[in-house]
Design goal:
Elements (H helix, E strand, L loop, with lengths): L1 H4 L35 E6 L2 E6 L16 H8 L6 H4 L5 E2 L12 E6 L15 E4 L4 E4 L2 E6 L5 E6 L13 H12 L13 E2 L2 E2 L1 E6 L2 E5 L7 H6 L14 H4 L14 H6 L14 E7 L3 E6 L5 E2 L11 E6 L3 H9 L5 E2 L9 H6 L1 H4 L1 E7 L8 E3 L6 H8 L1 H9 L3 H7 L6 E2 L15 H12 L6 H10 L21 E6 L4 H16 L4 E6 L1 H9 L5 E2 L27 H8 L27 H4 L2 H12 L5 H18 L3 E2 L2 E2 L2 E7 L2 E2 L30 E2 L2
Parallel strand pairs: 3-15, 4-16, 21-22, 21-23
Antiparallel strand pairs: 1-2, 5-6, 7-8, 8-12, 9-10, 11-12, 13-14, 14-16, 17-26, 18-26, 19-23, 19-24, 20-25, 27-28
Helix pairs in contact: 12-15, 20-21
């Protein structure tokens, strides 16, 4: 799953004002899926439209029987080696409803990995709150309740009383403050404030109310705080927000003068590599050999139970072996040597063979939606240093011509095996702004179809209209002033098969309308700095998959960093409110550090990016959920009218999941609220499907 693993960017950043509640989404009013924890429903008004929400339970959920535990743990209790379950669970356990049925205890999942974070991405135990229903709702995590004041400047989170780390030590607000005060605010430690860590140019104030109650105080409204805390799995993947102080402080220079730096501390702070590291996840790492294997065993202090009071997880542990080669991975699956695999190197080209071997190998192929908004995609450098080329790459008709020249039906057939949907290119079709009512769905269709038609004649006419014609008869179109035009597609030399397969078709398409296309591959180490400096032309080997809210990770909508379609504009927004804003005006924008526009310069102030930024900054502090959605639609309309700023190929193609035929409670696509939302890191699949409720059938 190389596309997902290459998604290396980390965060940027709603929740309604109500106890333990966040936005639910949806005028479609679909019935809640059984994957959501049982909880009391509370109707919450989101002016001007009522939106149903899922409320956190403020008291323990009644269960059909007293809490029960795995036989192996019960035996340890009997031997006096483990406290009784009542002392291990918090007062108010998290209740998770299995998707199909109550499971049985026992068994171990056999799997493989080619990246050590695979099973960490399967566990959601460290998150304050959790995404459910494919990002349409938020439910409790280690926090059982949360609330915000009327203007969303103060948020209060309550950690489950009695929550414990996997070594039995209490987990409290002090563990959050350790991460914030001793790591993030420590200038010698690399942890940076996450998106919920600041607003209005000021860091949030963390206030300890009591051992289990934390207040976050901001200088301006922060309506996205709960959603931001649901992002990622919050334990070595994405930002942390909590860390076991009782364990880590022994390696911290502040608490132990034996240590002069954080090298040992940070080696120890790995849920994926250090078996000693206390965790809040369903399974804890008990053995790790780099590039060989991982062994995970159940956490006896895990804070969740099923609807009958059985402590989760059902499955005893996970045995994962390291397999890098994609062909070996495929053979391992077909031989029936795995029970669950989510990260792997198999592609849609392998699907037919994998389906044919299901019965022989004792596995099922499950297809979950990727949630991709683009499939393989392309974006022009809006901030190219050459005036003539920058004007061309900013011209909507030039970009629309390249989009209409793209033979997406062939790409869909050859590369995506007739799966997914053709698209101009958008944020994820799973995003709430495309789903919460019929008008939202119409907005998605408008954006998806804007320039999606394969129409070479129209593409040629658009180029003729802006003066990009073949004036010297050599078969290639020139700039409007008659000078030679070559269009460079820039990509790193390690681009994957999907990228190269799509590019082969796209290159021919664009040459067929008279554009002289040059493929420019370069060492990956060189590519990034050149792009961020605004020096390259057209970027590929990427996709857009972000949601579930456009404003959580808005970099494709509004340039707020230099990795995407407007690197200098992105650098400018990163420095707004800092002493560097609008400085170095005696230098070219490309010679500044970092390369950036000033807010007063014609290259920025009169264009669509300035309009997008203005809307974005207002939306980020708008408390009214519906108003925010409309502001996002305004941004999308700018993308349609002044863009496209990026173009996609095939959206929402499927991701392949493998499960043993004996493994229960792994949801099918139709059991997921939106069919799945696998690709973005900030919706942590498969953690959102509650693997702690998976079990082995007899």
């Amino acid at each position: 799953m190389s596309t997902r693993i290459n998604r290396r960017e980390f965060l940027f950043g709603s929740a309604m004002t109500a106890v333990g509640v966040a936005l639910s989404a949806c005028a479609r009013q679909a019935a809640p899926q059984p994957t959501q924890p049982p909880a009391t429903k509370a109707a919450v008004q989101a002016s001007p439209t009522p939106i149903p929400t899922l409320a956190a339970t403020a008291t323990p959920v009644p269960t059909a029987a007293p809490a029960k535990e795995a036989p192996a743990l019960a035996e340890l209790v009997k031997q006096g080696k483990l406290p009784p379950l009542s002392d291990r669970l918090p007062k108010n356990p998290l209740v998770l409803a299995p998707v199909n049925e109550i499971g049985t205890y026992g068994g171990r999942i056999r799997t493989f990995y080619h990246w050590q974070g695979f099973w960490a991405e399967c566990q959601y135990g460290h998150s304050a709150v959790r995404w459910i229903n494919d990002g349409m709702e938020i439910a409790p995590g280690i926090c059982d309740t949360w609330s915000a004041n009327a203007d969303n400047t103060e948020w209060t989170f309550h950690i489950r009383e009695g929550l414990k780390w996997s070594d039995g030590e209490p987990c409290t607000v002090d563990d959050v403050l350790y991460w914030w005060e001793d790591l993030v605010l420590n200038p010698d430690h690399p942890d940076n404030p996450p998106d919920f860590g600041s607003a209005g140019g000021k860091l949030v104030e963390f206030i300890k109310v009591d051992d289990y109650t934390l207040k976050l105080k901001y200088v301006e409204p922060t309506p996205l705080t709960a959603k931001r805390l649901a992002m990622w799995v919050n334990a070595n993947i994405g930002p942390r927000w909590i860390a076991p102080k009782h364990y880590l402080k022994q390696f911290h220079p502040k608490y132990n003068p034996e240590y002069k730096d954080f090298e040992v501390h940070d080696q120890k702070m790995s849920v994926m590599e250090n078996p000693e590291y206390p965790t809040l996840n369903p399974w804890m790492l008990t053995k790790y050999e780099a590039s060989v294997s991982q062994t995970w065993d159940r956490n006896p202090y895990y804070y969740a139970v099923d609807t009958e009071g059985n402590q989760l997880p059902y499955i005893d542990g996970i045995d994962a072996i390291y397999i890098q080669d994609a062909e070996v991975q495929k053979l391992t699956i077909m031989q029936g040597s795995t029970d669950f695999v989510h990260f792997h190197g198999c592609t849609l080209a392998d699907l037919s063979t994998l389906l044919e071997n299901q019965d022989k190998g004792g596995y099922d192929v499950v297809l979950w939606d990727s949630g991709s908004g683009t499939g393989m995609m392309y974006f022009w450098n809006y901030d190219h240093p050459d005036d003539k080329r920058r004007a061309l790459y900013r011209n909507p008709k030039f970009k629309q011509a390249m989009s209409h020249a793209l033979d997406r039906p062939t790409i869909q057939r050859v590369v995506y095996y007739n799966t997914g949907i053709l698209t101009t290119g958008t944020m994820s079709p799973k995003a709430i702004e495309f789903n919460f009512n019929a008008e939202a769905q119409a907005m998605y269709e408008k954006a998806r179809s804007a320039y999606v038609d394969y129409d070479p004649a129209k593409a040629k006419a658009l180029l003729d209209e802006i003066g990009v014609k073949d004036v010297d008869g050599d078969g290639w179109r020139e700039f409007p002033d008659g000078s030679k035009l070559a269009v460079s597609i820039d990509l790193p030399a390690d681009a994957g098969n999907e990228c190269m397969s799509v590019l082969q078709i796209a290159e021919k398409n664009w040459k067929d309308i008279g554009l002289n296309i040059v493929i420019n591959q370069m060492p990956p180490a060189e590519f990034g700095p050149l792009w961020r400096g605004g020096k390259l032309e057209i970027h590929t080997n990427w996709e857009v998959g972000d949601g579930p809210d456009h404003l959580l990770y808005p970099s494709w909508m509004v340039p707020n960093e230099p990795e995407r379609w407007a690197p200098l504009c992105g650098n400018r927004l990163m420095l707004v409110g800092t002493p560097q804003e609008d400085t170095e005006l005696d230098k070219s924008p490309w010679d500044r550090t970092p390369p950036r526009w000033a807010s007063t310069e014609p290259g920025y102030k009169d264009g669509p990016v300035a309009k997008l930024t203005e809307i974005y900054l207002k939306a980020m502090i708008e408390v009214d959920e519906i108003k925010r959605h409309h502001m996002v639609w305004d941004m999308i309309n700018i993308h349609i009218n002044d863009g496209p700023f990026f173009i996609g190929t095939v959206a929402n193609y499927p991701r392949i999941i493998f499960k043993s035929k004996k493994l229960g409670n792994v949801p099918k696509k139709e059991q997921l609220r939106l069919g799945g939302f696998v690709n973005p890191w900030i919706i942590p699949y498969p953690a959102v499907t509650n693997p702690e409720t998976y079990y082995f059938k007899a």
